[in-house]
Amino acid sequence: MEFEIQDDEIELLLQDLQERYGYDFTDYSKASLKRRINRLYSLDKFPSFALFRKQIQTDSIYFRRFVEEITVNVTEMFRDPSFYRILREEVLPVLATHPFIRIWHAGCSTGEEVYSMAILLREAGLLKKSLLYATDINPGVLERLKKGIFPLRFIKQYSENYIQSGGKDDFSRYYTAKYDWAKFDEQLTAKMVVATHNLVSDRSFNEFQLIFCRNVLIYFDRNLQNRALQLFDDSLDTLGFLALGAKENLKYSTIFRKYKQLENKERIWRKIA
Hints:
With 273 residues, this protein is an alpha/beta fold. It has helices at residues 7-21, 30-43, 49-58, 60-70, 81-95, 112-123, 139-147, 155-164, 186-189, 222-235, and strands at residues 101-106, 130-136, 149-151, 175-178, 181-184, 192-196, 208-213, 236-244, 259-261, 268-271.
């Protein structure tokens, strides 16, 4: 029978991460964390929990692998095309009225969403007066984002999503294909500010007109969700927009009364107070 790391041992790991590296995972969904930690433990074939724990404590490269494995990095360009269509039709015209546009992609993973937004802004003639702040707790995924290189095998799906979102150009104008990779236009990357940021412990660092945090909060418990949402509220201009994932909601949050959802089925709210 395969050994499974127990709840008390996971608590020890979480304490180590906070004390040694300053990463606070204590309010993340316990079931999701346990599943991912056990998957990594099994994958890397550690003979004991003690050795696994020591490796995380003493080997900064392995610690980075640990963070990559237990944080969720599933994303694609123009994911949920109807969401991006609403951004095109209802949000961008409002953003266009601002002299300068700041957008925060919190928990951006490898950055497919950030490139999608940069393409929308470029097509609306707004990219020149915009900055996209791309942050994640995981430094490994941010390195991939900065390179702007994605597997060519995904591009067909991205192109279809783009067209369904209302894209009118040939999607291939935004990247150069070489071997099995697609490198995206550096004019898009030039408008991105990329940095590690921990939604649990780090503070607000700017004022934004639009904040994305899609499919991240579902992995937090209620307390941590409210803390993250309060951080977004502190960072968002009045009348700014907050965009969440398809299974996420403001309904039971502490900031609910300050926001009004757009009149469609997409998870986009406007700050009204």
